[in-house]
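Please fill in the sequence for the structure shown.

STRUCTURE ENCODING:
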């Protein structure tokens, strides 16, 4: 498991870099497999979060994963997702590209594991199509709407060196809930 870099960390400059493409011949190599394994373990260990990009663990490569919480998500009042992630059910996106975006954009509530406890509204395309490679080097396409479309855009922003706070409006700090508050 790796530490998730924060935007103000000394080593957090990788979050602001345009991540490098993964050479196709390296996709099934040991280094990429280890990075993906680290990403899976890191996301699974989080109390919330639906996706993770390689730069968030200090690797400037165009890889992101989507955890199963993205498909079974329910939110508490702070907008944090609480379901545990079943191991092995993450989706892997290597060298992803958005190939189509809807003209319709909507404001979506957003946070980030690299900008802890801050949330805001981000204008995102309602629907997107993504083209990428999986961990076996097979090219695929996936269309998405709603939360999954938001995740694709958020994670690709990470790969381009951008954080949600760069464009968010109505930013608010919302520290984790005190578990005892729920009992009152």
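FILLED IN BY: designer on duty
SEQUENCE:
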């Amino acid at each position: 498991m790796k530490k998730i870099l924060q935007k103000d960390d000394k080593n957090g400059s990788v979050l602001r870099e345009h991540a490098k493409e993964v050479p196709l011949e390296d996709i099934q190599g040991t280094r990429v497999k280890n990075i993906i394994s680290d990403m899976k373990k890191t996301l699974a260990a989080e109390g919330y979060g639906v996706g993770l990009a390689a730069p968030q663990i200090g690797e400037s490569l165009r890889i992101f994963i989507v955890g199963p919480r993205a498909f079974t998500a329910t939110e508490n009042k702070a907008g944090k997702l609480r379901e545990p992630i079943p191991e092995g059910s993450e989706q892997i996106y290597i060298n992803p590209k958005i190939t189509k975006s809807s003209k319709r954009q909507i404001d979506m509530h957003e946070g980030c594991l690299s900008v802890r406890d801050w949330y805001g509204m981000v204008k995102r395309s309602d629907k997107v199509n993504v083209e990428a490679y999986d961990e076996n080097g097979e090219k695929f396409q996936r269309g998405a709407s709603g939360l999954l479309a938001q995740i694709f855009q958020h994670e690709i922003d990470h790969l381009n060196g951008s954080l949600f706070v760069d464009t968010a409006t109505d930013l608010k700090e919302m520290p984790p809930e005190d578990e005892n508050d729920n009992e009152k």
